[in-house]
């Protein structure tokens, strides 16, 4: 693992493999890959295996507001690593990290901040 991997792990915390995520969402691992391509989830290679942050999945579904936020971040030109760092870095104005605000159903606020970064 590189220093960047350790930094990302420290921010993100728990990860799920494609198989774990597929089991949680009751879909196939190929469907998880499609979710990643469609910006419904973010996936990164960790130790050679594609994984997604566990915080992105709650109660058997993708966190509400995450797909729209990921699309906005992609449209703003964020790389996968940049989007992960932005989503998991605490923001005093929210308060908490954007992913925490999404989990708390405050997605409009999060997307507004993401769109403002594009300007």
Shape: globular
SS-based structural class?
Answer: alpha+beta
Distance between the termini: 34 Å
Mean pLDDT rating: 90
**Could you name the ranges where pLDDT drops below 50 across 5 or more consecutive residues?**
none
Topology of helices and strands:
Layout: H1 3-12, E1 15-17, H2 18-25, H3 29-37, E2 44-46, E3 49-53, E4 57-58, E5 61-62, H4 66-75, H5 80-88, H6 98-103, H7 107-118
Antiparallel strand pairs: 1-3, 2-3, 4-5
Helix pairs in contact: 2-3, 4-7
How would you sum up this structure in a few lines?
The chain is α+β, with helices and mostly antiparallel strands and 119 residues long.
Can you characterise this structure?
By secondary structure, this protein is an alpha+beta fold. The chain is 54% helix and 13% strand. It has helices spanning 3-12, 18-25, 29-37, 66-75, 80-88, 98-103, 107-118; strands at 15-17, 44-46, 49-53, 57-58, 61-62. A 3-stranded antiparallel beta sheet has the order 1-3-2. A two-stranded antiparallel ribbon has the order 4-5. Helix 2 (18-25) packs across helix 3 and helix 4 (66-75) runs parallel beside helix 7. The termini are far apart.
What distinguishing features does this structure have?
alpha+beta; two-stranded antiparallel sheet; 5 strands; 13% strand; globular
């Amino acid at each position: 693992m590189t220093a960047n991997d350790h930094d990302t792990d420290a921010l993100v915390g728990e990860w799920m493999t494609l198989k774990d995520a597929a089991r949680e969402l009751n879909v196939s691992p190929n469907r998880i890959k499609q979710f990643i391509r469609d910006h419904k989830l973010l996936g990164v290679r960790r130790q050679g295996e594609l994984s997604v942050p566990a915080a992105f999945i709650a109660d058997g579904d993708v966190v509400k507001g995450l797909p729209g936020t990921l699309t906005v971040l992609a449209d703003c030109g964020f790389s996968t690593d940049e989007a992960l760092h932005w989503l998991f870095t605490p923001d005093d104005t929210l308060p908490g990290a954007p992913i925490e605000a999404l989990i708390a159903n405050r997605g409009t606020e999060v997307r507004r901040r993401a769109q403002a970064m594009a300007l």
